[in-house]
Amino acid sequence: MKLGIVGLPNVGKSSLFNALAGARAAVASFPFSTVEPNVGIAPLHDHRLEAVARIFGSARVTPAAIKYIDIAGLVEGASRGEGLGNRFLAHIREADAILHVVRCFQREDVSHAAGPVDPARDVEIVNTELILADIESIERRRERLKTHLKTGDPEYRWQDETLAAVSAELDRGKAIRELQLDAKAREWLYRQDFLTAKPVLYVANVGEDELEGPVSLVEELREAVGEAPVVVLSAALEQELSELDPAERREFLSEWGLEERPLDLLIKASFALLDLITFITANDREARAWTIEAGTPAVVAAGKVHTDMARGFVAAEVIPAQRLMEVGSMARAKEAGMVRLEGRDYEVQDGDVIQFRFNVS
Q1: Looking at residue 108, what is its pLDDT?
Q2: Residue 5's Cα: distance from chain center in Å?
């Protein structure tokens, strides 16, 4: 799973990417410093995994991770090829979701492609360009369907009617993800890689001195995006923090009165946006978090660890990490009857610690 980091030029996308991936993407105070997309992996900080590793005495800890793509800044007219619009649209189609960075800070030495800082306007510019791109894509698809419609096949007629109805809603300014669709239409449309069908997480990029309280520009952003999730952070500060060692980082967060790094909250929100959860396997060699979609059955989760575990699945010994942390060892957890034996159809829950029983002989 990967998220495309998008937004207008000079809103802090590359700084945020650097903080997420520990990379050195180009950062500049002028538009289009990012031409080709940078790709990086960001680990999910999870105190449960670290605690489980201590309980098992694991020599290595491997966290779950998610991929981010730093995509060139979009400008008004991108759907018509303005700026790097065509590249932008092609790269975002490859992403599973959108991380939309919105500038919520004032700095005279960093130009803004659209004039004065205005989060609501910036959101509208990006959303409009994605909507226009989807309308154009639908027009092309309907043109290709004309030949098939002559066969009289009802499936092609349904596709054409569905695309026509969606195009009408896009004309009214509605994204595909906002539409009320039946199961068949939703499943089919979401396979077509329409840009406005992708889930969106907004990042309000504020100044370093604006993390401790409400910022008017952030409130403007929240009002503009309605119920969509918003994470507030300072991309410049997060990039600086990523260059510190863990002890220095903890000291800094303590001085600021922050229990958790905003960047970690963003990564967690990214997992939630894609409906992803993690389960943990552990022994004395390694404690590892595995990423799966919510609702995944135990036998499929076993296959993530090793194909033999799925092929020869017998059962799964399961205990929530929090319960294991409370008793301090698997032996005590078993003595207390906290460890459950689950079958192949058990839906794995976030934070489950699992030991798979399997037999391939």
Answers
A1: 64
A2: 9
Question: What is the Cα 38 distance to its own chain's centre?
Answer: 16
Task: Name residue 98's beta-bridge partners.
Answer: 4, 200
Tally of CB atoms within 10 A around 361: 3
Buried b (16+ CB within 10 A) or exposed e, 129-156: bbbbbbbebbeeeeeeeeeeeeeeeeeb
Strands, E assignment, the chain: 2-6, 38-43, 60-62, 65-70, 97-103, 200-205, 230-233, 276-282, 286-293, 313-320, 340-342, 352-358
The pTM of the full predicted model, rounded to 2 decimals, is 0.86
Range 13-26 average pLDDT: 76
pLDDT at 87: 60
| DSSP annotation string for 297-322 | BHHHHHHHH-HHHHHTEEEEEEEEHH
pLDDT, tens digit (0-9, with 9 covering 90-100), for 112-156: 566 688 999 999 999 998 999 999 999 999 999 999 999 989 999
Q: How far apart are CA 71 and CA 37, in angstroms?
A: 5
State the DSSP code for 213.
S
- Residue 285's pLDDT is 97
Handedness of CA 348, 354, 359, 360 (dihedral sign): positive
